[in-house]
């Protein structure tokens, strides 16, 4: 075996045995999970204007609640959700806080709707509300997958001997969604119409 070939084989064996491949695979898993999180959050943001317009038509006097939803969506849209965001703890927290504000604003809006039986009878509203519930469920699933992916990656980054490989190649711990309020966030807002709303299309 020629020296250069032997060096390549030895290097490959060392890298595979010290966690390099595991780190690469875990990092790719995080990127895929993060893309799905962003996709579902974007679907929710795209739904907000139509939801606000339908509610405004029947409950225009609820201006404070409607404005809060619009402002929360605006703050979400102002954050550049680039792939690099998952490597920046401060930026990730701003993203998480903005999404949390929109979740809370939407929940308050749905509570207000309870005061307007005529609004709940509008087919367009029922359809939007059903879509929102479906999206919130998908957000919860996507967040859970992302949390699990980051936990697995961070464990590898911190564990010996893969932590040495992580330091050598610049793999760093990634920020994650806080889990203290995960149960509350994972519960989608619901409104009981007394009848089953049509299922949201995937």
Write up this protein.
The chain has 202 residues and is an all-alpha fold. It has a single domain, classed as de novo design (two linked rop proteins) (Up-down Bundle). 73% of the residues lie in helices and 0% in strands. The protein is built from 8 helices and no strands. It has helices spanning 3-17, 20-58, 63-78, 89-113, 117-120, 123-158, 162-169, 182-186. The N and C termini lie far apart (56 Å).
Summarize it.
By secondary structure, the chain is mostly helical.
Q: Which helices and strands occur, and which strands form pairs?
A:
Blueprint (H helix, E strand, L loop, with lengths): L2 H15 L2 H39 L4 H16 L10 H25 L3 H4 L2 H36 L3 H8 L12 H5 L16
Q: How much beta, percentage-wise?
A: under 5%
Taking all Cα atoms into account, the compactness measure Rg is 22 Å
Gross morphology is: elongated
- Structural class, from helix and strand content? mainly alpha
Q: Can you count the helices?
A: 8
> Which CATH C-level class is it?
Mainly Alpha
How far apart are the first and last residues' alpha carbons, in Å?
56 Å
**Low-confidence stretches at least 5 residues in length (pLDDT < 50)?**
5-15, 188-202
The average pLDDT score comes to: 82
Q: Percent of residues in helical segments?
A: over 70%
Supply the CATH superfamily name: LemA-like domain
The number of E-state strands comes to 0
Count of the domains: 1
Gross CATH architecture: Up-down Bundle
Topology order in helix (H) and strand (E) letters: HHHHHHHH
Task: Output the keywords.
0% strand; 8 helices; single chain; mainly alpha; de novo design (two linked rop proteins); elongated; disordered C terminus; 202 residues; 73% helix
């Amino acid at each position: 075996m020629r020296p250069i070939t032997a060096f390549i084989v030895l290097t490959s064996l060392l890298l595979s045995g010290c966690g390099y491949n595991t780190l690469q695979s875990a990092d790719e898993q995080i990127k895929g999970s993060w893309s799905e999180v962003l996709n579902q959050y974007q679907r929710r943001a795209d739904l907000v204007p139509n939801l606000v317009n339908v509610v405004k038509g029947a409950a225009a006097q609820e201006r404070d609640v409607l404005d809060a939803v619009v402002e929360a969506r605006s703050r979400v849209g102002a954050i550049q959700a680039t792939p690099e965001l998952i490597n920046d703890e401060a930026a990730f927290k701003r993203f998480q806080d903005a999404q949390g504000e929109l979740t809370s604003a939407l929940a308050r809006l749905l509570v207000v709707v309870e005061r307007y039986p005529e609004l709940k009878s509008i087919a367009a509203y029922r359809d939007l509300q059903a879509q929102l519930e479906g999206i919130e469920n998908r957000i919860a699933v996507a967040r859970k997958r992302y949390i699990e992916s980051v936990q697995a990656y961070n464990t590898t980054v911190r564990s010996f001997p893969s932590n040495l490989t992580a330091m050598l190649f610049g793999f760093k711990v990634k920020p994650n969604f806080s889990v203290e309020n995960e149960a509350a966030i994972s519960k989608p807002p619901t409104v009981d119409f007394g009848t089953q709303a049509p299922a949201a299309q995937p």
